[in-house]
Design brief:
Low-confidence stretches: none
CATH class: Alpha Beta
Largest sheet: 6 strands, antiparallel
Number of strands: 6
Structural class: alpha+beta
Bound molecules: methionine sulfoxide
Mean pLDDT: 96
Helix content: 25-40%
CATH superfamily: GAF domain
Number of domains: 1
Radius of gyration: 15 Å
Length: 158
């Protein structure tokens, strides 16, 4: 496939509806996890311009930083710690409208104001998380949850 993304203006749902098939095309038939996580991060960052988009992967009972786009980030996160560790422990998506109001939030960047973390679940186990950070409060909602969960659902089946 061509490497250029088609980036649009529009409602949040319209932006997801345009970028999702492009992400699917990028990862379909490619078995390499690192390559796919890298392209998913890049495509989402390019469409939405969020502060930070990336992955942490479960390795020996810690989350370890994986492919991402944005400022340098914390390398390791323990289970239950921060939004990422909590999403891992609970095996559920966490939408955080104001990171300062989330007990134990880990401030990798002082610019981050709101966040969404989606666990990557495969065969009933959390294998990692997709973490997205915004410089604005209240950036993420049910629309983000729905579309980002759809994308993460492709990761171990592409
Ligand atoms: N804020 C996250 C840590 C990861 S960075 O935002 C990239 C957390 O509380 O888990």
């Amino acid at each position: 496939m061509a490497e250029d993304l088609h980036i649009i203006q529009g409602t949040k749902a319209e932006q997801y509806e345009t970028i999702l098939p492009q992400i699917k095309a990028l990862i379909t038939g490619e078995p390499d996890l690192t390559a796919n996580l890298a392209n998913i991060s890049a495509a989402l960052k390019e469409q939405f311009g969020w502060l930070w988009v990336g992955f942490y992967l479960v390795k020996e009972d810690e989350l370890v930083l994986g492919p991402f786009q944005g400022p340098v980030a914390c390398t390791r996160i323990r289970k239950g710690r921060g939004v990422c560790g909590a999403a891992w422990e609970r095996a559920e998506t966490l939408v955080v409208p104001d990171v300062e109001a989330f007990p134990g939030h880990i401030a990798c960047s002082s610019l981050s104001r709101s966040e969404i973390v989606i666990p990557l679940i495969h065969n009933g186990e959390v294998k990692g998380v997709l973490d997205v950070d915004s410089t604005d409060l209240n950036t993420f909602d049910e629309t983000d949850r729905r579309f980002l969960e759809e994308i993460t659902g492709w990761i171990f089946t592409s």
